[in-house]
């Protein structure tokens, strides 16, 4: 979609280093997803916006708005470096990271690809994915590194066949590396995307993991690569299946209300959003790209019992096992 943040010459020079391979992977993932989305919404196009961060690095934001199929779809890449803010370091230490700063300074490098896709049709689910790599240099010169990420689905209405397809595709990607990973990361996803003040999950989950620093850097990278390659096959068939479904004004209204929940989670709980807002020189437009173009909040809205709206709420309150 645009030249890499680090430049092709620099990436070629250190092409064997994992940081370069990860940057190429996130660039490839961005391009694959953008191509897949424009193939479904040919009248729309992505605005490609390259930006630089004065503290170090930059990114490429690709955003589509007001298409026939997608109301808003963003696929962002960022590769940033510099000194970790005290707020961001405190957030990491709260997760159990032992970070030894030198003169209060912690050099870091972070890179990742992040996407949120909000379709127009309420029968097409919203989808989010993010895959990232983080590296910190401590006072004695040692480097801590870890990967994180995940892919999750947020439908307005429940379609069990779609849920099974989505989860099975992610399970297959995980099982290539270790059959224990999918159940572990599925539960982590259900627990992470939890809107505590509502008592419900943001969606029907998928996989989520963080602080992955084993069994080795290469094996962790290969796992992340498998997950990133599963994004298009887990989601695009669902969009194709439903993007021309008919819907009522009442169904559109319910979609708007569910998007309100999406906003609540992202602004109140999402760790990536918080980290971005706490990082000096971060690009606010790219961080808040995840928010939908439209949403709605109604006072004390409760769907009728035994309705399709009540059906999805039941699953959001009590997550299901979709693959067994």
Automatic annotation (TrEMBL):
Keywords: Heme biosynthesis, Oxidoreductase, Porphyrin biosynthesis. Pfam families: Coprogen_oxidas. It catalyses: coproporphyrinogen III + O2 + 2 H(+) = protoporphyrinogen IX + 2 CO2 + 2 H2O. Pathway: Porphyrin-containing compound metabolism; protoporphyrin-IX biosynthesis; protoporphyrinogen-IX from coproporphyrinogen-III (O2 route): step 1/1. GO terms for molecular function: coproporphyrinogen oxidase activity. GO terms for biological process: protoporphyrinogen IX biosynthetic process. Its EC number is 1.3.3.3. One of its GO terms (cellular component) is cytoplasm. It is an enzyme of class 1 (oxidoreductase). Homodimer. Belongs to the aerobic coproporphyrinogen-III oxidase family. This is Oxygen-dependent coproporphyrinogen-III oxidase, mitochondrial. It comes from Corvus moneduloides (New Caledonian crow). The gene is CPOX.
